[in-house]
Amino acid sequence: MTGQQNDGPTVRRLQLGARLRSLRLAKGVTRDRAGYEIRASESKISRMELGRVSFKERDVTDLLKLYGVDDEGEHERLLTLAREANTPGWWHSYGDVLSSWFQNYLDLEQAAELIRTYEIQFVPGLLQTDAYARAVIMLGHGSATPAEIGRRAELRMARKQMLADDDQPRLWAVLDEAVLRRPRPVAPSASCASRTRTCPTWSTSSTSPAGSTSTSPRRWTTTPRRWAG
């Protein structure tokens, strides 16, 4: 895991949940008994220990008392984790273009020491340029407005910033050869997109998005698809 300053709420919940489970088992307390202590159900304790829900400081305090934790340092450390687990990550401001599952993914990505990715169609998101990202986003979100496409591309560029940090994770990217040989996608201009809702076309350039040059690039032309709206 990279430096703790990069750890977001998902990672904090996992850390706190795992520690609470360890303390409960060491004390021989059942989930049902722990749930009763915080006026909740056994399933609530299970979700807390798996890091799937947020934590109330009062609940953590009551559980630590039940588990016999009287070390002030340990007590304060776990309460700090509870507070940090409820603090939104930097990506929270992009909630309008983020699904809940991808927010968790971004959290884990930011805390990773090693990231492995395999792509058969496009350059991985963490290695895309802004122009390439916009074109790919338009392929997957053809009905999106130029503003939404810009927001999604901005988020993708923000994700890349961690690769420039002092404690950046190692990134292993395995690409299918077709990713480098396939002509790169080119997004239409914003004015064109707003008027005609035209899909991105494919450039016939022999230069790949990653900067490599194909020895025998395939060339073709396409007619942009158009739709109402």
Describe this structure in words.
Strands 1-2 form a two-stranded parallel sheet. The chain has 10 helices and 4 strands, in the order ααααααβααβαβαβ. The chain is elongated. The protein has 229 residues and is mainly alpha-helical. The chain has 2 domains: 7-85, lambda repressor-like DNA-binding domains (434 Repressor (Amino-terminal Domain), Orthogonal Bundle), CATH 1.10.260; 91-202, no CATH class. Helices cover 47% and strands 7% of the residues.
Provide the fold topology.
Layout: H1 9-27, H2 31-37, H3 42-49, H4 57-66, H5 72-85, H6 100-111, E1 114-119, H7 130-140, H8 146-159, E2 170-175, H9 177-181, E3 185-186, H10 190-196, E4 201-202
Parallel strand pairs: 1-2
Antiparallel strand pairs: 3-4
